[in-house]
Amino acid sequence: MSRCRLDxxxxxxxxxxxSFAYAIGSKLSYCKEIEGLxxxxxxxxxxxxASWVPPPAHLLKINVxxxxxxxxxxxxxxxxxxxxxxxxxxxALRHSYQVSSSFEAEALAVVNGLLFxxxxxxxxxxxxxxxxxxxxxGNKVAHAVATLGRLENEDRFWIKEAPSPALELxxxxxxxxxxx
Length: 180
Hints:
The protein is α/β, with parallel strands linked by helices. The chain has six helices and six strands.
């Protein structure tokens, strides 16, 4: 279920009808940037699950998380993109500066995740993030990438791989849902 109690929220709902998305956009002035990124994707679906579950075969799943340090206003977005069999299609960590809150850091993680997917040419995606009430157990791989960003000073990108802590967690996710 999504924040608005709909099973799936298409682009039109998120951009034009979703009061939750509007609150994010109006508070942070990211509405235009999000709308531009979403217009390059075909039908992102926002949803929340108790643990990571692979997407349907025709979609990729983007998980994002943010690490925020209020003392210096620095945040790092952790992004992981996986396919229907759990294989990592891409991972990224992107830094942002002069960030004022953890809410803003999480919103930036959403924007950075959609931007990364778009840059890789992925158009059919499901997005999971803190705003879709995904618990840590369903977002631990993205969290590992975001946490790594605290130790890094540069943005990093991986194609069909991820940093080793994230890979280990992705393997554990795979074991959890793979049939015996």
